[in-house]
Design a protein that fits this description.
With 104 residues, the protein is mainly alpha-helical. The protein has a domain at 2-72: Serine Threonine Protein Phosphatase 5, Tetratricopeptide repeat (Alpha Horseshoe). It contains five helices and no strands. The chain has helices at residues 2-9, 14-30, 33-51, 56-84, 92-97. The longest helix is centred in the C-terminal third of the chain and has 29 residues, at 56-84.
Length: 104
Amino acid sequence: MIEGQTAALGAGHTSTLSTKYNLGNLLLNAGDMARARALLEEAAAGRAAALGEDHQSTQSARRACAQCDARPAQDKAKTATLSALGGKGIHATELEEEGKLEEA
């Protein structure tokens, strides 16, 4: 899809950049950080060129790039937390509702 859109509209067209951004976010949520990062960086650079560095769309793409860097650490922290809770998969909000957050 991106190839066809790029051929039809151009690499710097905002619709092409939005497609890259959206696909990058899908890959980010699926855990494919390398491919997500590449697409999100392209989207951020293209949006900066087309819309300016301070534009909300450019900033959204930059934040998504940062999430690619943060996600592995977040996943590691989540795994450690679940391990400390005995692998029961209990979320902090559930513990808080039960009045057991302090115990955890």
